[in-house]
Design a protein that fits this description.
By secondary structure, this protein is α/β, with parallel strands linked by helices. It contains twelve helices and 15 strands. Strands 4-5-6-7-8-9-10-11 form an eight-stranded parallel sheet. The chain binds magnesium ion (MG). The site of magnesium ion (MG) has 6 residues, from loops.
């Protein structure tokens, strides 16, 4: 019987634009790609590791090197293999997500079905994706806006010193719906509420992580009074966090890199729905490998923010489509993506 074999390689991928948030700015993003081989089938995965989350190519490579798959006699045993990987070491959520993604790709390829079919989903129900605009100097912002033309929803990073002007500049350009991501940038809940009322008047449809992730009573108060849904991002990582944030926010932003992958993301969506939370599926700056993995679940979301592959100067994978504002997975088996600007020698 064949053995499950893991390969990995790390890259520092250049971004199309310098990306600025309320607390950081960067021109490249580190990604470790994985490939899992078994009996002539290969599953692809990726660990995207924005520096502020604490994982690095070095940490993911050392995690991978410490794993032993010699006991695996069926790569379709996702429950068993993923339980082993998760229990192996604490943390390493992006590194674990890469393996979860590759296992789903491999398993679905062996069954000859797309990954969404493993979960009984119809990708035709996937909402349009937003396109994210970082914090830019005002004159630069105008030049960047045409990049949003093919998207139906624009997500704006706030928390700079000229947030309202940013929104005004975008409003002068387009009347498309907007969402905003404050990345924990507001500290006072009454001021935050004033901002949200103003944003609602300007066509904003939801507000992501308005206050620090450890805000409890302030966040609960804000959500209770907010005329727009509030979405937890930094405040929610994994399944166990969902009940904790359920009273403080209207919804959760689920990202594969935070929650160890597709399997746990599906469980999180199920639990979030049970608790009557809105569901958003987001991403890091990732290639179309990681984005495809999230897109296979996106028909379950109220809002989709899967633009990470558009933010790269050059995407190492191909096979993902973009049609009428929707990030569309293919009907091929597995994730439906294949290497383009990346080499795997088996
Ligand atoms: Mg966010």
């Amino acid at each position: 019987m064949d053995q499950l074999r893991l390969q990995f390689q790390s890259h520092l991928l250049p971004l199309a634009h310098t990306f600025t948030l309320s607390h950081s700015s960067r021109t490249h993003t580190p990604i470790t790609f994985v490939a899992l081989h078994w009996n002539g089938f290969t599953g692809y995965g990726e660990a995207a590791m924005p520096p502020y989350l604490g994982e690095t190519p070095e940490s993911s490579e050392s995690f991978y090197s410490s794993l032993d798959f010699s006991w695996v006699n069926d790569p379709g045993d996702l429950a068993g293999i993923l339980q082993y990987i998760d229990a192996h070491k604490l943390g390493h959520t992006a590194a674990k997500a890469a393996l979860d993604i590759a296992l789903h790709d491999l398993h679905a390829k062996r069954l000859g079905v797309p990954v969404y079919a493993l979960f009984g989903l119809n990708p035709d129900h996937s909402p349009m994706s937003s396109y994210t605009i970082g914090i830019h100097p005002k004159d630069e912002l105008r030049d960047i806006l045409p990049e949003t033309d093919s998207f139906g929803l624009i997500k704006v990073k706030l928390g700079g010193s000229y947030d309202r002007e940013t929104i005004q500049i975008i409003r002068d350009y387009t009347d498309k719906p907007l969402s905003v991501d404050v990345n924990q940038g507001w500290v006072e809940e009454k001021q935050a509420l004033d901002e949200i009322f103003w944003l609602k008047e300007h066509g904003v449809v939801y507000v992501e992580q308005p206050m620090p992730k450890d805000s409890t009573h302030a966040m609960e108060w804000l959500t209770e009074h907010s005329p727009l849904p509030t979405i937890a991002d930094e405040a929610v990582q994994r399944l166990r966090d969902i009940p904790i944030v359920a009273r403080r926010y209207s919804g959760v932003n689920i990202k594969l890199m935070k929650c160890t992958g597709i399997r746990e993301a599906f469980a999180m969506i199920t639990l979030a729905r049970t608790l009557e939370l809105k569901v958003m599926i987001g991403c890091m700056t990732e290639s179309s490998c990681g984005i495809a993995a999230a897109a296979h679940l996106s028909s379950l979301a109220d809002w989709v923010d899967l633009d990470g592959h558009f933010l790269l100067a050059k995407d190492p994978y191909q096979g993902l489509d973009f049609e009428d504002g929707v990030v569309k997975v293919s009907e091929k088996s597995g994730l439906g993506i294949s290497p383009k600007a990346i080499r795997w020698d088996y």
